[in-house]
Amino acid sequence: MYKLFGLLVALCSLSSELEAREFEQGRQITEMPAVLTFKERVKPINNMVSDRLDNLLPKLMQEADLDMWLVINREYGEDKLFYTLVPQPTFAARRTTLLVFSKNPDGSVERFSVSRYPIGELYPTVWKGGSKEQQWQRLAEVITKRDPKRIGINISENWALADGLSVGLHKQLRKSLPKKYQNRLVSAENLVLRWLETRSEKELNVYPQAVTIARRVIAEAFSNKVITPGVTTTTEVEWYLRERFEALQLRPWFQPYVNIQRRGDDPAKDEVFMGKYNRVILPGDIIHTDVGICYLSLCTDTQEMGYVLKINETDVPAGLQQAMAIGNQWQDILTSNFKSGLTGNRILANTIKQSEAANIISSTYTHPLGFVGHASGPTIGMWDNQGPTPIQGDWKLFPNTVYAIEGNIKTQLPEWDNQWIQIKLEQDAVFDGKKVWYLAGRQTQWHIIR
């Protein structure tokens, strides 16, 4: 009895302490920001594309030591990178579209298309038209005239997003060039990765809006607006999330999912992911979701936790509040290790060592975000590999890059007879070179369903 009394006193004390504590960058999203229509999005997206081409690309070409960069596409078989370079609305490359970026002596970059059509005002064409053979011949003439020493093309053995040049187009390119310039073709891998991972000031001004929208829709879904305990299923919540985003003209880049941890499930401590799907949501359940959307060409990836109050409860149990605090502590350990020049593998190793020293059972699987959900940049752990990740984990951390701070912690819940539970968190943040800032705050309080 004395032990039980002591535990209750400790939990009450902890609850008061947690209520008084304001976790750094914690934020609840209570209002939906304005969401632009497809038509309204064109101008800001194109402003960001133009800004990147004018101000970022010259620096990255200099950094990659490339004199020319070729991005070659065929209709419906486009290099994924193509859509980050062209103005909206662009749905596909037209016929064969040859984009050329040529570095000038002053460091600026001339850009144009060797194609049947110009692409808006960003890419005038230098070809008057003709047969396919004449188009490739014209490209060879352009290259010969500028005489670049290093010509970057999008081929890569290890990075999918830097490997967008198809085998057929690669063969055609080599066949069309004099041998002198065939020998100057090199992988543009470093340029592509840096182009994809680097966020401009204009992009960072709008990125928080995308994340705020995602977090607000989760808050709606994890409320009594959507959930009636004893009736609503996790599958119904998943489809609410999907259809709510679609109604905002925002298509998720993966199907949202929702799962439940429940007293009596009694998962093993070493279970990789705790939680079951396709269940009716009941009082006393822990619920979890994972969603990702893209807005203004920038993608999000967010995981948050909710709790369904039992009839005799007015707040989340103290043990769950403590579990959330441990999750936030793990986040702090991870982000404190973000330092320019460190590899993803080193950040992971430091995080694991410090988490273990703090007696936190954690798993880290953090990834870059940007034009796609699983973007280019340093991999910081994988859910099925908590050791070094070759190649992607060896990539170094650069400033002005965005990450999904993703992972989980495991702990025992006193209120559930010390059953093991898992707090799975994922919040989007930018590393500015000195500190990690959450783009729309992070979850430090439970979503509550009554």
Automatic annotation (TrEMBL):
The keyword Aminoacyl-tRNA synthetase does not apply. Coiled coil: none annotated. Keywords: Aminopeptidase, Hydrolase, Protease. InterPro entries: Creatinase/aminopeptidase-like, Pept_M24, Peptidase_M24B. GO terms for molecular function: aminopeptidase activity. Residues 209-428 form the Peptidase M24 domain. The keyword Cell division does not apply. PANTHER family: AMINOPEPTIDASE, CYTOPLASMIC PEPTIDASE PEPQ-RELATED. This is Xaa-pro aminopeptidase. It comes from Pseudoalteromonas luteoviolacea (strain 2ta16).
